[in-house]
Structure formats: structure tokens, C-alpha cells
Design goal:
Blueprint lengths: L4 E6 L2 E8 L7 E2 L4 H5 L19 E4 L4 E4 L2 E2 H7 L2 H10 L5 H12 L8 H6 L7 H11 L13 H27 L12 H10 L10 H13 L7 H11 L4 H12 L7 H12 L5 H9 L20 H16 L6 H15 L1 H5 L7 H11 L6 H21 L28
Antiparallel strand pairs: 1-2, 2-3, 4-5, 5-6
Helix pairs in contact: 3-9, 3-18, 6-7, 6-11, 7-8, 7-18, 8-9, 9-14, 9-17, 9-18, 10-11, 10-18, 11-18, 12-17, 14-17
This protein binds carboxymethyl coenzyme *A (CMC).
Length: 429
């Protein structure tokens, strides 16, 4: 709490609002007692000015285009760290020692297999089900399989559930993919890295040997790390809200996956690649820019814009470099989608509409190009986002559970419906 205070004057009465001081970012007005004292609510649909919790995990400076995981800039982590090391950092607050990292790696890899009976669960889905639909169902169903990690009041249960989800989400996503293409499920191989194992489970078949390309493994690891957490975004807030009622961790993460699926959030990577394909060639870009500026068209440039970043998205910068690297190393020269993406970015960034609204490419603008070059269908893009964000959801969920001031999330409303009225009999309506 700082020495500053704000004063609200309402109907001639004054109400003091304490000012809370964050480590980084703007000060926060504490309005918790406002309703009790002044009998008014605040109105902020979309939470554009509302801090819903305290958190020590991730910080974004939207004006500087800065993203910090536990204080470490994302660019440094992308260059020097790995996804699993970043998972440890997000979950426990500090970078691991070599021994801690080795132990964490063992704990995660020992949990990569899923209960054999879960395979039957997959078979209940239509073959053409979107892998996100399958994931929402199967991750939610984990609570029916792992009863020994459901007690949220027990720190050990919370820990085991967390490790299980980090370990099993890649297996579940790969199974959803294999099921959709009619190939047999591939068991995890614990001698491989986290990213390498995921590629193995997606692309190997029993009929021949699959060797994980180190280039693709590194690119996949980086995609996972860049998506690992992003403070109180829609899906994370969904996980927190679900968790605030005391729901079990598997149910909470399933809720997060459902929220992530939307095209304004994690579904944007699929929507963006589909848009780049629809544009098709550089000469059609002006037509799509004009459409994006026309409010009546209902069309937005996918992979563009962000609620918090108003300068640039630092993840997009790393992703753009990765796209260049991966395509170069795969020997894909002059990839038409990459050409369209780069030209679209160039034109949009010079256009008054995008400049004045501070709209920049976000993380999803280039990720789809990399994933497609790796051989993933567009329907797998959002599941890969879900695998990556799992650690963020879990870290935020654990932080919420351990917060002694925690309460069930229960927003109020500004009611605009009918006033009280009497029921009318069916015959007289
Ligand atoms: N194309 C064209 N116009 C846009 C776009 C866009 N992509 N994004 C925002 N605008 C306009 C919007 O029409 C509005 O104009 P006006 O002020 O004249 O009404 C203004 O910019 C502000 O937009 P908003 O919808 O109020 O902003 P928001 O903070 O609520 O939405 C967003 C952020 C990411 C949902 C939005 O920019 C968007 O829909 N982008 C496309 C989808 C996308 O790429 N999503 C991925 C986000 S990054 C990955 C993740 O975290 O999930």
C-alpha cells in the first residue's frame, strides 16, 4: 500500500480509495470496500482497467513491448533457456540449479504416459473432430482417472496434478492428432526432450524409424516457451475463475483450453494462417487491408493487435526470426505465405489506421508459418498453444490457491432488463 490515496466524491460524500503499489506497472486503486461504503459498483466489461488479482509470475509492459517471466526478459530466455527450464521458473519462481532441472525433467518424463483406458475415450469422438474439442473433453476427463491428485487443499496433490498436466498435455494433443488422421497412437519416448518427444508422438509411425530433427526440435521448444505464460489473459483468467470455486485442477485447465480456442485468443494462429492462404499473393494485400479497416466488413487482420502491447509484441519478433531460420534450414526458399506475411506487416505498419490504433503483429502472426512448415495441419496450431500455456495456467492456478486473501470470483453487473412485473396467464398474453 502506498501513502497516496484517491478520493471519490459522490452525492457530496467523500470516500477514500487506498492506492496499491505494484513492483512494476501503474498504481492500483483498491475498490474492495467501495460497494459496502458507497453502495456503487464499478463498470469495466472486458477488464480494461481492472486488476483481478495480485501475481508475481509474469509482467508485460505494453508500451515498451516487454515481457518478463519472473523478471527475466523473454528474449534472453528464448536465446538461452529451454521450455522445461522455463516451466520450472514459472512454477517455482527461480531458475533451477542443474540438479533441480535434472530432477524436474525426470518428474515430468515419468508422467508422460496416459492411463491406457483413456484411449477408449478418444474413440468416442468423430474422426473429424477438431483436436481442441477432443482436448477439452479428454483433459476434463483426467479428473475421472487421477483421483489421487484432486484434493486442492493438499500441496502434494496440487504438485502431482501440475506435473501430470505438463507431462500429459503433449501426449493428449498428439493422440488427438493421430486419431484425426487415422494413425495409431504413438507412446511417448522419455529419452527425447519435451519438444522432441511431442514431434515424435505426432510424426512417427510404427512402420518406420522417425528421427527428430534438432532444428525442428529447437523451433518447437521456442514456440512452447514463447507461449508459456502471459499474465491475466482470457484463458488464464478463466482458469483462475474456475479454480476460485474450488473446482479440481483438471477441470480448471479444461476450462482454460475451451477459452483459448476462440479466434480472438489462441485460435488466432489457425485463423491467421487461413487468412494468409486466402490472401494468397502480395498483390491482394491492399484489398484485405481495406477490408480490415472497414468496420462493416466484420473482418480483422488475424495475428494483429493486442490488448496490452501498444508498441510491439516481443514474442512476434523472436517468432519472425524463428520463421526465417526454420524455413531456411528446411530448404524452403521464397515461401509464399512468409512473403505475404512480411509484406502485409510492412504495409499495415505504414498505414495510418494501424499506426493510430497501435496495432502490431502479435505472437500468432508468424507461428503458423513455422508450424505448417514442420508438417502440422492448421487444426493443430491451437492445441500446440494449449500445451505451451499449460504451465502458465498451472502456475497461476497454484498461486491463486495459495493466496490467503482468495475469494470466489463473482463479478457484479449493471442490470438493464425489465423491472419487477407480474406473471401473466398464458391465455391473456
Ligand atoms: N484488425 C483490424 N482492426 C483491429 C484489429 C485487427 N486485428 N484489432 C483491433 N482493431 C481495431 C478495432 O476495430 C478497434 O477499432 P475502434 O477503436 O475504431 O473501434 C480498435 O482497433 C481496438 O480494438 P479492440 O477490439 O477494442 O481491442 P481489444 O484490446 O479488445 O482486442 C484483440 C485485442 C487481440 C482481441 C484484437 O486486436 C483482435 O481481435 N486481433 C485479432 C485476433 C488476434 O490476433 N488475436 C491474438 C492475440 S495474441 C495471442 C493471445 O494472447 O491469445
Amino acid at each position: 500500500m502506498s501513502d497516496r490515496k484517491a478520493t471519490l466524491t459522490l452525492d457530496g460524500k467523500e470516500f477514500d480509495l487506498p492506492v496499491m503499489k505494484p513492483v512494476l506497472g501503474p498504481d492500483v486503486l483498491d475498490i474492495r470496500k467501495l460497494y459496502g461504503q458507497a453502495d456503487v459498483f464499478t463498470f469495466d466489461p472486458g477488464f480494461t482497467s481492472t486488476a483481478a488479482c495480485e501475481s508475481a509470475i509474469t509482467y508485460i509492459d505494453g508500451d515498451l513491448g516487454e515481457l518478463l517471466y519472473r523478471g527475466y526478459p523473454i528474449e534472453q530466455l528464448a536465446e538461452k533457456s529451454s521450455h522445461l527450464e522455463t516451466c520450472f521458473l514459472l512454477m517455482y519462481g527461480e531458475l533451477p540449479t542443474a540438479a533441480q532441472l535434472a530432477d524436474f525433467n525426470t518428474r515430468v518424463t515419468r508422467h508422460t504416459m496416459v492411463h491406457e483406458q483413456m484411449m477408449n475415450f478418444f474413440r468416442g469422438f468423430r474422426r473429424d473432430a477438431h483436436p481442441m474439442a477432443t482436448m477439452v473433453g479428454v483433459v476434463g476427463a483426467m479428473s475421472a482417472f487421477y483421483h489421487d491428485s484432486l484434493d486442492i487443499t493438499d500441496a502434494w496433490h496440487r504438485e502431482v496434478a501440475s506435473i501430470r498436466m505438463i507431462a500429459k498435455l503433449p501426449t493428449i494433443a498428439a493422440m488427438a492428432y493421430k486419431y484425426s488422421v487415422g494413425q495409431p497412437f504413438v507412446y511417448p519416448k522419455n529419452s527425447l526432450s519435451y519438444a522432441g518427444n511431442f514431434l515424435h508422438m505426432c510424426f512417427s509411425v510404427p512402420a518406420e524409424e522417425y528421427v527428430v530433427s534438432p532444428i525442428l526440435e529447437k523451433a518447437m521448444d521456442r514456440i512452447m516457451m514463447l507461449h508459456a505464460d502471459h499474465e491475466q489473459n482470457a484463458s488464464t483468467s478463466t482458469v483462475r475463475l474456475a479454480g476460485s470455486s474450488g473446482a479440481n485442477p483438471f477441470a480448471c485447465i479444461a476450462a482454460g483450453i475451451a477459452c483459448l480456442w476462440g479466434p480472438a485468443h489462441g485460435g488466432a494462429n489457425q485463423a491467421c494462417l487461413e487468412m494468409l492462404k486466402e490472401i494468397g499473393s502480395v498483390d491482394r494485400i491492399p484489398e484485405f487491408i481495406a477490408k480490415a479497416k472497414d468496420k462493416n466488413s466484420g473482418f480483422r487482420l488475424m495475428g494483429f493487435g493486442h490488448r496490452v502491447y501498444k508498441n510491439f509484441d516481443p514474442r512476434a519478433k523472436v517468432m519472425k526470426e524463428s520463421a526465417d531460420e526454420v524455413l531456411e534450414l528446411l530448404g524452403v526458399h521464397n515461401n509464399p505465405l512468409l512473403q505475404v506475411a512480411k509484406e502485409l506487416e510492412r504495409i499495415a505498419l505504414e498505414d495510418e489506421y494501424f499506426v493510430s490504433k497501435k496495432l502490431y503483429p502479435n505472437v500468432d502472426f508468424y507461428s503458423g508459418i513455422i508450424l505448417e512448415a514442420m508438417g502440422f495441419p492448421t487444426s493443430m496450431f491451437t492445441p500446440i498453444f494449449a500445451i505451451s500455456r499449460t504451465v502458465g495456467w498451472i502456475s497461476q492456478w497454484k498461486e491463486m490457491i495459495s493466496d490467503p486473501t482468495g475469494k470466489i470470483g463473482r463479478p457484479r453487473q449493471l442490470y438493464v432488463g425489465p423491472t419487477k412485473r407480474d406473471y401473466t396467464d398464458l391465455r391473456s398474453r
